[in-house]
Amino acid sequence: MSTEASFDQRLQEGTAAYQAGDYATALSIFEELGEKNAPNVMFACSQMYYNGQGTDVDKARALWWMERAAEVGGDPEIMFFCGQMYDDGDGVPVDKARALQWYERSARYGYPQAQFFCGVMYNGGEGTAVDKHKAIAWYEQAAQQGHYVAQFNCGIMYENGDSVPVDEERALMWYEKSARQGYAKAQFNCGGMYNNGKGTPVDKARALQWYEAAAKQNFAPAQLQCGVMHLNGWGTPQDNHQALMWLEQAAQQGVPQAMILCGELYYPIDRDRSRMWYKYAAQQTVDEEVQTHASLTLMRYF
């Protein structure tokens, strides 16, 4: 029997054992085959050690097999997983520098999640010196592949001029790409850009559309902004009922300014509910100015 045929037969035996739930036999066969530098089998061994199938959980051994699989097979996803284990200290001591090495190897193969993590690590100086230029370079590579958080981060860096010249139009472009994928923070930032005329003419109606998209995902700052927009008639007809709907949602998430506005809006129509929101605003400790204002209002009017 040829070596290749023998390998295939043993692989079939190992796979059959695994499917039958005989993990100990499967692992024994996979480790035997893994020694023949078969990356897929090596990765299977790593997963079985990681999950404790046919053996006790042994994450250090899992990583040993995973790194061998990555070295032999050149699979960027497996390289990324190696980076994650060093990054998180998952079964091994945290080693940010080693994590970054694996992330960069994966990123060079075009793996977008690894490109994003490279951006994070260079941006924050994890495992390396802070290097904003490398951070934006990696973020943009991931962003161009549709990574919505990388797109958002590109927007932040271009809006703030963080290692790149301020470019509000480019910032808005990246925010909108991310926002169209449903990322609430990006939707909120799009609202801010249209509301304040950054990178685009002021468009209050468009701003409200983006704020509401984020608010519907329970993003509290957007709920506050929706309330303010409806309260003031910005981009929409003035509507206290709609304003209260959004402001209460924000207030229920602990936004102090929303609590105050709820207290003000309820005062003419429901004193008990008005008092309740002023009391919550007075008891919160996030915003001292709001706390003081609420306390004085309670003493004066209730």
Would you kindly provide a written description of the structure presented here, covering whatever features stand out?
With 302 residues, this protein is an all-alpha fold. It has 17 helices and no strands. The protein has helices at residues 3-19, 23-34, 39-51, 59-73, 76-88, 96-108, 112-124, 132-144, 148-160, 168-179, 184-196, 204-215, 220-232, 240-252, 256-266, 271-283, 288-301. Helix 14 crosses helix 15 (256-266) and helix 15 runs antiparallel to helix 16 (271-283). The longest helix is centred in the N-terminal third of the chain and has 17 residues, at 3-19. It is elongated and about 85 Å long. The protein starts with a helix and ends with a helix.
